[in-house]
Amino acid sequence: MRHEVTEADTAVALGSGDVPVLATPRLIAWLEAATVRAAAPLLSAGRTSVGTAVRVDHLRATPVGGHVEVSAEPPDADGRRLTFRVRAVDGAGRLVAAGEIDRAVVDRQRFIDASAAHPGEADTADTS
Question: What would the pLDDT profile of 4-43 be if each residue is shown by its tens digit?
Fold first, then answer.
């Protein structure tokens, strides 16, 4: 997935800093979206994945107008827990970020029902 950094993607715009460069929260959102796409072929009908942990080092600033390519390496099959290696590189091929994002495979409807019944308490540990 290739993204162009806009003013709306900056640390200033997102409130995560006071410099007009790619904000870490936006970068993580892009990386997480890559894991959602990479997880999709691993899921059976009625299942989805939800994010549970993020360990990412944001190593290089990217200015407005710059481009970032994000990717998520499909994990080895590990049951209901999926750990993706993620990375982002800029238009010059320099490493912008690297790390891991964990996702849990859950029954989609059951997860929605649980979160609606008890807002803020949906349990990713119950992945049946």
Answer: 999 999 999 999 999 999 999 999 999 999 999 999 999 9
Q: Residue 115 has what pLDDT?
A: 87
pTM for this prediction:
0.89
| Closest C-alpha among 90, 16, 103 to residue 53 | 103
Contact by Cβ (8 Å): 99, 83: no
Active-site entry in 32, 35, 62, 124: 32
Tokens encoding 121: 């308490």
Mean pLDDT of 50-74: 97
Reported residue count of the chain is 128
Residue 19 has what DSSP assignment?
Answer: S
Degrees to nearest 5, angle at CA 20 with 18 and 23: 80
Distance CA 37, CA 40 (A): 5
Catalytic residue among 24, 48, 83, 127: 24
Give tens-digit pLDDT for 73-87: 988 767 889 999 999
